[in-house]
């Protein structure tokens, strides 16, 4: 039985993760960690002193995830990270720390199997198109922009094509940011924040005479739980660092 702790347990994603673990025959929820609430541990360190944690699942916020991950890896706690907002330099640091301590760490910008397939299909399509942009749409309580899914998608696409702005004319923004942010390989990423959305993303490819769009919509946070449990089982059984759920699907 895998002993699982959930950090950010009272948040919308954390609540779903707790429910998923409690209903999993191979895992046991041994600690809820959240600064709010009366029946939760207030920190990972407090929980670690009280219970034996095999795997910690983190769905907190960008401001805290890096320190949370460092604490886990330095203290032999395997970690699954669903919190987005980590910088490339921080991801590289955690990769090196995971390998140094021989403690598994999995970072997934998105745990929905459909979203992961969207990213994989986008990488495949990138071989055949010289122009592409990404539009990601989330609820208006999401604190980081662009989303980790959009950043990961752009990174995967850049592995197949190093320039997605071929033929574009010189541009002048009359309103700053109108063209979104420029990511890997010249891919523009546009972030929408609006009540009513959970998480959606479009990858738009264009070439002379045609437009090709790949889109994924998350309608319920339960769609992420299959991927979360898959990640928990993987880090429990394997050491090493993984960035992206597609690497264990």
Give an overview of the whole structure.
The protein has 249 residues and is an alpha/beta fold. 33% of the residues lie in helices and 24% in strands. The protein folds into 2 domains: 2-107 and 222-247, NAD(P)-binding Rossmann-like Domain (Rossmann fold); 113-218, 2-Layer Sandwich (Dihydrodipicolinate Reductase, domain 2), CATH 3.30.360.10. The protein is built from 7 helices and 11 strands. Helix 1 (12-22) packs across helix 7 (225-237), helix 3 (62-74) packs parallel to helix 4 and helix 5 runs parallel beside helix 6. The longest helix is centred in the middle third of the chain and has 14 residues, at 88-101. It starts with a strand and ends in a 6-residue tail after the last strand. The model has no long low-confidence stretch (mean pLDDT 95).
List the helices and strands and how they pair.
Blueprint (H helix, E strand, L loop, with lengths): L1 E6 L4 H11 L4 E7 L10 H7 L4 E4 L3 H13 L3 E4 L6 H14 L3 E3 L5 H13 L5 E8 L9 H11 L22 E2 L5 E6 L5 E9 L2 E9 L6 H13 L3 E3 L6
Parallel strand pairs: 1-2, 1-3, 3-4, 4-5, 5-11, 6-8
Antiparallel strand pairs: 6-9, 7-8, 9-10
Helix pairs in contact: 1-7, 3-4, 5-6
């Amino acid at each position: 039985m895998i002993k699982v702790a959930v950090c950010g347990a009272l948040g919308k994603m954390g609540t779903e993760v707790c429910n998923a673990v409690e209903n999993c025959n191979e895992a046991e929820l041994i600690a809820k960690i959240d600064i709010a609430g009366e029946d939760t541990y207030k920190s990972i360190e407090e929980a670690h002193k009280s219970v034996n944690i095999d795997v910690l699942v983190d769905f907190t916020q960008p401001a805290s995830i890096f320190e949370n991950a460092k604490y886990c890896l330095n203290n032999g706690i395997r970690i699954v990270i669903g919190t987005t907002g980590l910088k490339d330099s921080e991801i590289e640091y955690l990769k090196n720390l995971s390998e140094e301590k021989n403690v598994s760490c999995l970072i997934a910008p998105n745990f929905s199997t459909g979203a992961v397939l969207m990213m994989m299909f986008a990488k495949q399509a990138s071989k055949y198109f010289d122009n592409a942009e990404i539009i990601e749409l989330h609820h208006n309580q999401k604190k980081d922009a662009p989303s980790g899914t959009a950043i990961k998608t752009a990174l995967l696409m850049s592995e197949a094509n190093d320039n997605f702005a071929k033929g574009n004319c010189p541009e002048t923004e009359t309103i700053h940011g109108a063209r979104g942010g420029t990511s890997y390989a010249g891919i523009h990423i546009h972030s929408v924040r609006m009540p009513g959305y959970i998480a959606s993303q479009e990858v738009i490819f264009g070439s002379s005479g045609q437009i090709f769009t790949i889109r994924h919509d998350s309608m319920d946070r339960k769609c992420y739980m299959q991927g979360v449990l898959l990640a928990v089982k993987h880090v429990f059984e394997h050491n090493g660092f993984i960035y992206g759920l597609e690497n264990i699907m």
